[in-house]
Specification:
single chain, 290 residues, alpha+beta, 47% helix, 14% strand, globular
Length: 290
Amino acid sequence: MKNLINYYYNLNIVNIHQRDKNYYFKINDEVYSFIECNECNNIEEIYKLSKYLEQYSIFKQILLNINSQVITVINEKKYILIKNNKIDDSITLNKIIDINNIKAQFINLKMPEWEELWCKKMDYFEYQISQIGKKYPLIRESFNYYLGLTELAISVLNNIPKKDLYFCLSHKRIEDIYNPLNLIIDYRVRDISEYFKKNFFNNKDIIEELNLFLFNNNLTNNEKKLFFVRMLFPSYYFDTYENIIINKISEETIKKITIKVDEYEKILKKIYLHLKINSNLQISWLENIN
């Protein structure tokens, strides 16, 4: 692989190492990643966005090969070469908000509506569990609760007017936040909600930061409801579920989530009570949580 990368990018790699499906190397203290990307949708739009973001000097760069192409095909597999930045890529709320505030209109990277995605995902998971559920007793035991949370999220979502909802630069996942391959266009509460959920299930105390966010932000009332919807949607559970099904992690891992049900419900109630002050939102289930 080293010789092929050298050829396609006019580089002189000395040492290279592989991790999973990807390759990593350094040249003059610059770090590069050769990423397998067989499902690279809208790659030309992503490249244009990457070029646009170079002005901010924080994002990783996509490099073209000797044929001026984004994708390099090797052994029938598609790869993209990324030049990493030297920026601290730890994830903070302020960094997320700064990225959300970047003015970049790339509509072809806009995500489908959440309801459409979630309904398809739930239909697929329900079918999947009907076929293989006996193999995963912990998932079978817990799935209906998180399906119920999703149905509640969709119900609230359907009652939010579409006005005063703003799109911005967002992420597929709240990790590797400066990687252009991870960027999408979505509602600006997406990343913030995923940030809070990720920290909560990584056993970080989110109460103080959540309070500051709820009382000190420029979100519209409809966006605050959308934030609540996204906090309701248990992406953390379904991501873990999928990793279990593909044998990436053990089923026991799901306990790290299910054991925190009561604690997370109190977080949801806190957000709900904050929203209820200025809206007609009414969820009796959350009202009854102690």
